[in-house]
Design goal:
Radius of gyration: 17 Å
Order of helices and strands: EEH
Shape: elongated
Largest sheet: 2 strands, antiparallel
Strand order of the largest sheet: 1-2
Mean pLDDT: 85
Helix content: 10-25%
Strand content: 15-25%
Number of domains: 1
Length: 63
């Protein structure tokens, strides 16, 4: 399941956490929130960022 979590600290600082996205699609999915919240001050990439999406393969036999 793909989720975007917005965490707000008691000091008013915000943090975005994305889960279930592969590669840079997390950045695309959360870009509207980043624009609304302001400039990014830090970024920590998870292992999911470095994974590529697995696409189904079709094997076709030809005579």
């Amino acid at each position: 399941m793909k989720t975007i979590e917005v965490v707000v600290s008691p000091k008013g600082e915000t943090r975005l956490e994305t889960r279930g996205f592969n590669g840079a699609e997390c950045r695309e999915a959360s870009s509207f929130l980043e624009k609304a919240l302001g400039a990014r001050t830090a970024e920590r990439l998870t292992d999911e960022f470095y994974q590529t999406a697995v696409l189904p393969q079709t094997i076709e036999e030809r005579p």
